[in-house]
Design brief:
Length: 394
């Protein structure tokens, strides 16, 4: 289960995932636009390049210094603001009906947006909360008469609840990453470096057909596992090291993100004890999930286990220095969050990570991370949690 193979052997029999989940259909995208229009309290909404543009328009472009955006009126069809030289690429990517509004390199995309708003007669505009400040600044200068506010309630209101098609895409991404974890454990050998393991994980994600290899990858050996997001530089695996690997990929933009912690060699009593408490905290968070329960209650449930076992009930160490989990979808971290202060009531279709890490400063850290979605009567795992310290994979 741990060791005994090589990267070459493990990569050799990997193939693109069988029966891939279908892409988001045109009908579903139309329904998203209609839902957004229903939630809007302004006359128009602007969504810039990034995860939300992918969500509403099917365009999976990252934000750059050039404005690419959808302007959605409260009723009627959206317009797409885009550089003219990108029109062909836009048409190839676009998953909705939208009228193109193109700007040349020397022109102001903000003046163009202002004229689109004027044509719509829109004097109120909700803006994508992820839009860069310099773009917001350009817009407010070009359209000083338009009242602008955040579109966060509309964007989150739509994106927080996942449809069956979205659950299927995330299910596939997570199953693929768990398979990569299983194989990564087999290539471990004394002397292997974190860089070598990361490279293997990226290649394995690619071989399974992920959008673009690993979307991120943290491989931490020994004392480096005590830092939630690792340490710079390479580490070399030695006997008795705790191994913490956290990685993910994307399928049609939808994210996976799974952590496994196990020992290379024989676990010490201390490692085994902390691992068992971590397992219990993750299970308690899962068991607390029910529609209507506030997000922060899930974090509290994990912390009650830690406090009962002698760890800090707060962010102090030894204990859990961060939130218990995050929403996940087209963004790897998205609203709502399983954190104190987030009172969003859980609802069927919401998706979260469950990762109440325990850090023993200067020694090691244990994180078990699996994701679940909220159902009518509780929660359902996307991937089954790690069974035991000795048996990281079934
Ligand atoms: Zn993670
Ligand atoms: Zn996570």
């Amino acid at each position: 289960m741990i060791g005994g193979s090589t990267a070459e052997q493990e990569l050799a029999d990997l193939e693109p995932w069988p029966n891939p989940a279908p892409a988001i259909a045109a009908d579903e995208r139309r329904a998203r636009l209609a839902q957004a229009q229903g939630l809007m309290t302004t006359e128009a909404m602007l969504i810039g390049a990034g995860a939300s543009l992918r969500y509403f328009a099917g365009v999976g472009w990252n934000a750059t210094e050039r404005l690419v955006a959808m302007v959605l009126p409260k009723s009627g069809a959206p317009a797409m603001i885009c550089p003219r030289f990108e029109e062909g690429s836009l048409n190839a990517a676009l998953g909705i009906e939208a009228s193109p509004r193109l700007w040349e390199e020397h022109e102001s995309p903000y003046a163009l947006t202002a004229s689109v708003l004027a044509e719509l007669g829109a004097s109120t505009l909700a803006i994508d909360p992820a839009l860069a400040f310099f773009m917001f600044d350009g817009l407010r200068q070009a359209a000083p008469e338009v009242a602008m506010e955040t579109a966060a309630p509309v964007v989150d209101g739509c994106r927080m609840i996942k449809s069956p098609a979205e659950l299927a895409l995330m299910s596939q991404a997570k199953a693929m990453t768990l398979e990569v974890h299983r194989r990564a454990a087999r290539i471990l050998t004394a002397g292997v470096t974190t860089t070598q393991v990361r490279r293997f994980i990226d290649q394995a994600h690619r071989a399974l057909g992920a959008d673009d290899g690993s979307s991120f990858c943290a491989v931490q050996f020994g004392a480096a596992s005590a830092y939630p997001h690792g340490l710079p530089g390479d580490q070399v695996l030695a006997d008795g090291d705790l191994v913490l690997i956290d990685t993910g990929c994307r399928v049609q933009g939808y994210n996976s993100d799974i952590t496994r912690t196990y020992v290379f060699g024989t676990a010490t009593q201390e490692q085994a004890r902390v691992w068992a408490v971590e397992k219990q905290a993750q299970a308690a968070a899962f068991a607390a999930v029910k529609p209507g329960v506030a997000c922060e209650e899930i974090d509290a449930a994990a912390r009650r286990v830690l406090a009962a076992e002698g760890f800090s009930a707060d962010y102090d160490l030894p204990g859990l220095p961060h939130r218990t989990g995050h929403g996940i979808g087209l963004s790897i971290h998205e609203a709502p969050y399983l954190v104190r202060g987030d009172k969003t009531p859980l609802a069927p279709g919401m998706c979260f990570s469950n990762e109440p890490m325990i850090v023993i400063p200067g020694r090691f850290g244990v994180r078990l991370e699996d994701h679940f979605h909220v159902t009518e009567d509780g929660a359902a795992w996307f991937t089954q949690p790690q069974e035991s310290l000795e048996k990281p994979f079934e």
